[in-house]
Amino acid sequence: MKNRVAVIGAGAAGLMAAGIAAQRGLDVVLFEKTERTGKKILISGKGRCNITNNTDIEGLIQNIPGNGNFLYSSFYTFSNTDLVEFLEKNGLKTKVERGGRIFPVSDRSHDVLDVFIKFAKNNGVEIRLNSPVEEVTSENGKVTGLVLKSGQKVECDSVVIATGGLSYPGTGSTGDGYKMASKLGHGIIEQKPSLVPLITGEEWVKELQGLSLKNVGITMYNKSGKKVYNDFGEMLFTHFGVSGPIILSSSRHILDYNYRDIKLSIDLKPALTEEKLDERIRRDFELFSNKQFKNSLDELLPKKMVPVMVALSKIAPDKTVNQITKDERKNLVRLFKNLEVTITGARPVKEAIVTAGGVDTDQINPSTMESKLIKGLFFAGEIIDVDGYTGGFNLTIAFSTGYVAGMSV
């Protein structure tokens, strides 16, 4: 009789694990609690699916602040390059974009998901949708099967738990796997939102809701004034605070501060030194010397931002430009280079791109993804206490650990 493998969760990690195990000739059943597979794949990369990143393995590890070292073995077994080759071999063309991000040429996440569904089905995986699992059963330290929420019992030799984290619960990631693992004796590291929009204290931020800023610099400082993080790129103002790629990445660095007592300094003109920016503002002021101050910043700022910057500069809005003092102008320059915002919290974990925390990596064999406590129990993807930055790193974790689990069951 073929060895029977049950995989719980039909996301990136689960689909990969199921397909690889079935390709090896095992009898694989994939249980998905929602009505369709790969919901998180579909929404990743704004619906374009940022599959992976074209950096080297050291680069991958450096971009995984949450237990990156645990993944060395997985990445050497199935790297980002192997993933791209796998996709190309299965008919999906890819392309590299800014920051090494790899996307499908079609810009359609559906096409990525289709590859994995076809791969699983062509290798004989039985996919059971609308089939939530209640618990994994074991006897004498070995997996014996699982019990569905319907009460049905399924016998199997191995189980891969690939149920995701707590982010985007609409995709089915609601923490079920943590309960299953905990019941089997696994330690679960507290889950926190990682790569999450941030809440700010200042009222003026709300006036900029919906405004996206490109090519800005940000620096985060803790309450003792120590620099915690800096980055350059795109950010977004929201009704509650700030978001966008560089904010999401920065959020991982202030997780240990519980997202509180952090100052965010935004450099609106990072390409210019204070001296060069002062020259530029002086030129504009000469050009608009008879205009009121409130009408003199349109060349330097998005329209929506002008009233806010005018108010924060403390220069009278109706003052004519030729009356602005040197000190006032210098203060304006400093405001451009250091627009300060207070971070007071983060949005809830369900709004995070990824969950930090999960099954303790000390209790998982990094070479096989098998539990060190229960024989025949494997983990893959976000359920493990590993998490990376934006840029394709979290999907790389899912596909790589899924592959290793699929090869090891």
Task: Write up this protein.
There is one protein chain. A hairpin with a 2-residue loop joins β7 and β8. This protein has a 6-stranded antiparallel β-barrel with strand order 12-15-14-13-16-17. The chain has a 5-stranded parallel β-sheet with strand order 6-2-1-10-19, with helices on one face. It is built from 13 helices and 19 strands. α1 runs parallel beside α6 and α10 crosses α12. The relative contact order is 0.20. The model has no long low-confidence stretch (mean pLDDT 95). The chain folds into 2 domains: 244 residues, FAD/NAD(P)-binding domain, CATH 3.50.50.60; 150 residues, Helicase, Ruva Protein, domain 3 (Orthogonal Bundle), CATH 1.10.8.50. By secondary structure, it is of the alpha+beta class.
Please write out the topology.
Blueprint: E1 4-8, H1 12-23, E2 27-31, H2 39-43, E3 52-53, H3 57-62, H4 72-77, H5 80-89, E4 94-96, E5 101-104, H6 109-122, E6 126-128, E7 133-139, E8 142-148, E9 153-155, E10 158-161, H7 176-183, E11 188-194, E12 198-200, H8 204-207, E13 212-221, E14 227-237, E15 241-243, H9 245-253, E16 262-267, H10 274-287, H11 306-313, H12 326-337, E17 339-346, E18 354-359, E19 377-379, H13 393-408
Helix pairs in contact: 1-6, 1-13, 10-12
Short description:
The protein is of the alpha+beta class and 409 residues long. 30% of the residues lie in helices and 24% in strands.
Key structural traits:
13 helices, five-stranded parallel β-sheet, Helicase, Ruva Protein, domain 3, 2 domains, alpha+beta, 19 strands, elongated, six-stranded antiparallel beta barrel, FAD/NAD(P)-binding domain, 409 residues
